[in-house]
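One such shown below:

_____
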Amino acid sequence: MYTDEQQALLDKVEDLMKEKNLSQSAVGQLIGISGTTLSQLKNGRYKANPQKIFDTLEQFFSENKNSAYSDTNYVSTNISGQIYKVIANCRSKGGLAVVCGDAGIGKTKTAQKFVADNPSDSFLITINPCLTGIKSLLKVIADRIGAGQEKSVNEMWFSIVNKISDGTVFIFDEAQHLTLKTIEVLRSFSDYFSDNGKTLGICFIGNLETIARMGSRKAEFAQISNRTRQRKIYRNTDIKREDICRIFPVLEKEGMNAEIDYLLRIARTPQALRGAVNLFSNAYDNENYTYAGLVAMAEFMDMEV
């Protein structure tokens, strides 16, 4: 229906919606077209000449390709620095560790940074509802470390054990999706290494439900909890002003204290650091990241302040 170039422009619109956390209507307004027109264009139902709209999209992305705010993938904030140390300690001492907290405070980016810094002995696996079964999770682990994909669960387990090196850490993000059985299997890897005088760290990262389950009074989860070396909880209220200065150094450099304080307010809401970054990025792209510009953009994004 559309040429490759036209479809690529529509894909950029989708990416922009996800990156900026904006609705279709808001993105249309940002580009200079109505949300209805954008919807009809995406669905192939735009009755007028679609090329005019594609020309508008082409012009927008051409003008903004170099102006977008480039936020740092990882910044050592108060929270991320502590999470990094928990993972490092889990790797060096082995056993289980649990890190949980509010969404958008930097847990995943910290795990990604740790793996990037230690690619030979650390592995990050993101859990989703499709990976709650033992065999499906073992397949992912085996694939990640290059172990043989055996048919039975038992054979898969031994294949993985024989491939893991001493001093390795596995980080399981979105761990709230894990079942008791899969957690027990993961713990068995760590126990096996410990029984053989070696270390294997298993670090679970997730939302507050993760540690609530680990700390459950139910006998099964209580046993896991008792064998967990570290359990840390982080909240968006733990975010500090100095964290905002590190993430947005241009604000500190220009002495924009009101803007720093405003982004700190955003970061301490459920929108957390992720929301503050999205807000500043949008305001920066709009060429107005003053206090008034941030407030106006927050209203435009329907953010709760």
Q: What stands out?
A: The first helix runs from residue 4 to 20.
